[in-house]
Amino acid sequence: MEQCINVIETLAPCLVASGTDPGLAQFISILLGVLLVTIFPLGGVIIFIWIERKIAARVQDRVGPNRVGPYGLFQNVADALKLITKEDITPAAADRLIYNFAPIVATLSVIMIWAVIPFSPVHIGVDLSIGVLYFVAIGSIGTLAFMMAGWASNNKYALLGAFRVVAQLVSYEIPMVLALLVPVLIAGTLSMQEMVQAQLGMWFVVMMPLSALIFYISNLAETGRAPFDLLEAESELVAGYNIEYSGMKFGLFMASEFIHAFTANALFVVIFMGGWAGPGVEQFPALGFVYFLGKTMLIYIPSLILRATVPRVRIDQMMNFNWKFLVPLSIINVLVMAFLFKVAQVLSLTPPPGLETDFIANLPLTAVLLAGNIVMIIGVLTVLRNTGRRERLEAEARRADDVRAPAPTMGR
Q: Which of 157, 160, 297, 391 sits in a 20 to 30 Å window from 405, CA-based?
């Protein structure tokens, strides 16, 4: 038993070696794995909502929740109880099965992502060899849940909101996947755990800041957060795809949104910021969870401040930004980074075998990739400056023409 490591995948053999029935050992292993990947997001959503409310209040010069419990900590518990006890209404003309199943699918699609997120070197639900592909596939199920909700509600506003969801989420999946190709190429693996281990020498956010930025922006749109919160544009669609939902079913949609926001930042940390990696993790693996949570909060809190400050963009602006800017930039980024990585391999600038986790050995490759990113960023800023200048001159010319044009005369 001393040779067994504390990871769910090897727990069953350890229990069998101690004399436990093999069937019971497998059941305990699966049960603990399920608890590991569900308790944290489901239990943490209460804290996530409280943190978001408090930060939004501070940004907007308010107090925030402060009545129920110390510092308003139990306000979200009270809100959850209120949603649970509210009347469960299903529209008479709705497709009852799909209508009631959609909130469950939306929540499960987010929770299932946590199955492949490594909390520490030895704490992970399941270390799939295709972890990144699993995340992309499971994350897409949420889009299906929103479409189910809008279609099954038999309401034109809900259906229009669902169409906007499909247009937004499917569109922004393209630059997100293209941004993911770069760290997968450098790490040489699709496993989340191995991707973290590939960053023990250098974080990918330092090697490829442009890919990290594209992934971050795409994830903001994927989670429907400001300035891309067109999924629930109350001023335009009454409430969006969930207009016909009330009670706990509405609460599940809201909970899935908050969980997804935190999950997106956790994935950013795993893929670009070394996940659980940090000093002392080799001796104390549980310390990796502290590093993982600290890094995630470091990225999560700025996204909350962004949501509380920036206005919502129009649907045409959002789609133009994706298809005319983000997607072409993502394609160029993949091509340039693949070329530079191949050049680094030819010039023997990649870390030698056995030194992949050494900081000094990773500096040559980091310098090459970072220089390419800096050149691309300068090129993008130059193009944006020239485009903005041209549009401004065209607008000034139109205004000048309007001033010179003779005023219309009134006919008899």
A: 391
Tell me how far apart the alpha carbons of residues 306 and 311 are, in angstroms, rounded to a whole number. Answer: 9
pLDDT (tens digit per residue) in 71-86? 898 998 898 898 888 8
Q: 77 lies in a domain?
A: no
**How many other β-carbons are positioned within 10 Å of the β-carbon of residue 38?**
16
Measure the CA–CA gap between 351 and 198, rounded to whole angstroms: 11
Assess if residue 397 is contained within a domain. no
Residue 63 structure tokens: 């107090």
**pTM of the shown model:** 0.88
**Structural tokens at position 342:** 């191949």
* Total domain count, the chain: 1
Bond preceding residue 103 cis, omega within 30 of 0: no
Count how many Cα atoms sit within 13 Å of the Cα of residue 194 in the half-sphere of its side chain.
15
State how far the Cα of 297 lies from the Cα of 266, in Å rounded to an integer.
8
